[in-house]
Amino acid sequence: MTKTYKLEGLDCPVCASKVERAVKAIDGVAAAKVNFLTGKLTVEYSDDAAGIIQDAVKSAVKKANPSVVVKGS
Amino acid sequence: MDRAVKTTVGKLSERIRLSPKQWRLAQIVAGGALYAAAILIDAGAAKLSLYIAALAVLGGNIIYKALRGVLSGELFDENFLMSIAAIGAFAIGEHSEGVAVMLFYQVGELCQSWAVDRSRRSIAALMDIRPDYANVKRGGLIVQVDPSEVEAGELIVIKPGERVPIDAVVVEGSSMVDTVALTGESVPREVAVGDTILSGSINAGGLLVARTEKLFGESTASRILELVENSSEKKSRPERFITKFARWYTPVIVLLAALIATLPPLFIPGAGFSEWIYRALTFLVISCPCALVISVPLSFFGGIGGASRAGILVKGGNYLEALAKAETVVFDKTGTLTRGVFEVEKIVPAAGVTERELLDYAAHAEAYSTHPISQSLRKALGREPDSARVSEAREVPGCGVVAVVDGKSVAVGNAKLMAQLGIEHDPAPDNAGTVVYAALDGRFVGYIQIGDTVKADSAAAVTGLRKSGVKDIVMLTGDAEPVAKKVAAQLGIENVRAGLLPEEKVSAVEELICKNPRSGKLVFVGDGINDAPVLARADVGVAMGGLGSDAAIEAADVVIMNDEPSKLVSAIKISRKTMRVAKQNIAFSLCVKFAILLLGALGLASMWAAVFADVGVTLIAIFNSLRTMKLI
């Protein structure tokens, strides 16, 4: 499954790649991509992770960069 | 302890409900006040403690992030380098400088985040085609839902002023539809029952009920947005250069800083450590390649956004770059330079017959035919032929039609038909293209010339391309030479290859590419229907009339949404401007960085001035890159 989130407060490309790495590291996430210019995070995850993905993404992003806020798709 | 601090800060920010940006602003104001107080006071201990307080307020979270970064192995992290610079300045007794570094850094970050935000917003506004909701008819009610929840085949209602959410076919009502956001075309289009309306266009007239044809994700608006958003993955050379540069820049600067801090004091007699450490710290504060990493991709994204607003979809920065170097433009004829629709061009009656009579007989004789020629005759007539007047219509394959109209025998067809029937006729000139001759009761009454008309702006496209420095303009066509020559002459194209089979078009393009081994690029423009191999072979494949055509959008590198070949001229202008801006940003940022490095190494630049200059460069470069959005 693939889901797209909007990231607010993503100010630099370096932060974008940090956030990307953090989301990729979540269990059940097959691929993650942050587009700095559009401020969008695209996550591809296994069906098993469907229940927890929203919270997992939010906390991973918050940990990677506290000033970035995840908005729904 | 760490957790306790975090939760306290978390609770505090939750209670006051500050956004990260407001938080930063509060930090700057409070820290700035403490800093000002520290400068004004001259007493020793109080001054120092005020400096420390200011540093804690301004740089506390940065130092915290730096520590966390170091723990997870990120040494060249921006936070870390800034922290070292500030703390280092403190350590050598430059308290004021240390605080100033953090103050300017925070102000810079705030401005940068504001600038990035603004850029994103203005680019998003350019591509404001995303529908927010759909009104669906379900169980006799009209409900407002998210467009992605609508199935194909459902009925949707689009009220005046609303955006069409999903590609659909009108089943009720008629209206005007504004497609400016999709095609750059500002004149609204009329739609009625049976017409397709595309998502992203705006209903500018009456209420429409339509049946959805696709899902939201496959509709035009979604596809366009996806394409433009993904365009940043296909990078141009300047973008690739920046990526590589950024990887090396920070470590090299840090290494240089280390060398400057240690070597001169060891080898130059009389050189003091604190003096050289200060110079080294100046290096650290400009160790972020931010100006380049943000502004160069942003320049390209802005250019792609501006182009999409003009109805030109560019699938990547690399194609924008190639367009800027276009030296050869190859056009397909039918459907690209011409409209691809047959129309009556000229009616030439024989003596004693009027144009109207000739057309009337010819159109009626062809009344039962479905051939494109008969369709163009009917269209020229301006009404449906009266079938009651026609009897005994008989098609002569490959030649024409023989019929009885108003009791008279009419023959309409090519020269072969006339010869078969033994009718003498005045031959039309060689370059006339497709000609139908007509005879009435065995007597020649004139001919009608039918052709594919040239688009209104094709000539302007050719002149525009020449003016913008395209050296070679070529026309390829499968049609016969006389027709091709005629169109080419009309447009002022000298280089024509006629009678080509589809695969011969590919080899013709290959030949042109080989002939032109310089850096100049070859652009092929086609209608995207049968020319996928040629589109792929050219340096840049441009498909025209892409609106609603999935095949064209798939096959091409650049898609012109409407049917105007002159958009290619705008596309080239946009691409050149984008390249110019990107190069300006690179040159400007690098010059300022090197100047600071040089002045810093010579001890002529203070740390706060270095931060200030670095932040300034970033902001100027970001705003410069936004210029690419504006058309020409």
Put the structure in a nutshell:
Chain A is α+β, with helices and mostly antiparallel strands. Chain A contains two helices and four strands, in the order E-H-E-E-H-E.
Relevant terms:
heterodimer, A: 73 residues, alpha+beta, Alpha-Beta Plaits, 2 helices, B: 632 residues, 6-stranded antiparallel β-sheet
Protein architecture, described:
The complex is a heterodimer of chains A (73) and B (632). Chain A is built from two helices and four strands; from the N terminus they run βαββαβ. With 73 residues, chain A is an alpha+beta fold. Chain A is globular and about 30 Å long. The two termini of chain A are 13 Å apart. The mean pLDDT of chain A is 84. Chain B is an alpha+beta fold. Chain B contains 22 helices and 22 strands. The radius of gyration of chain B is 35 Å and the shape is elongated. Chain B starts with a helix and ends in a 7-residue tail after the last helix.
Quaternary structure state of the chains depicted? heterodimer
Distance between the termini of chain B: 57 Å
- Number of structural units classed as domains of chain A: 1
Derived from helix and strand composition plus strand pairing, the structural class of chain B reads alpha+beta
Overall average pLDDT of chain B = 86
- First and last CA, distance of chain A: 13 Å
The coarse overall form of chain A would be globular
Order of strands across the main sheet of chain B: 10-22-21-20-11-18-19
What is the percentage of strand-forming residues of chain A?
Answer: 25-35%
- Overall pLDDT level of chain A: 84
Largest sheet report of chain A: 4 strands, antiparallel
CATH class of chain A: Alpha Beta
- Provide the helix percentage of chain B: 40-55%
- The SS-based structural class of chain A is alpha+beta
Q: Treating each run of at least 4 consecutive H or I residues as one helix, how many helices of chain A? A: 2
Give the tally of β-strands of chain B.
22
Show unreliable segments of chain B: none
CATH topology of chain A: Alpha-Beta Plaits
Named CATH architecture of chain A: 2-Layer Sandwich
Number of beta strands of chain A: 4
Rg of chain A (CA only): 11 Å
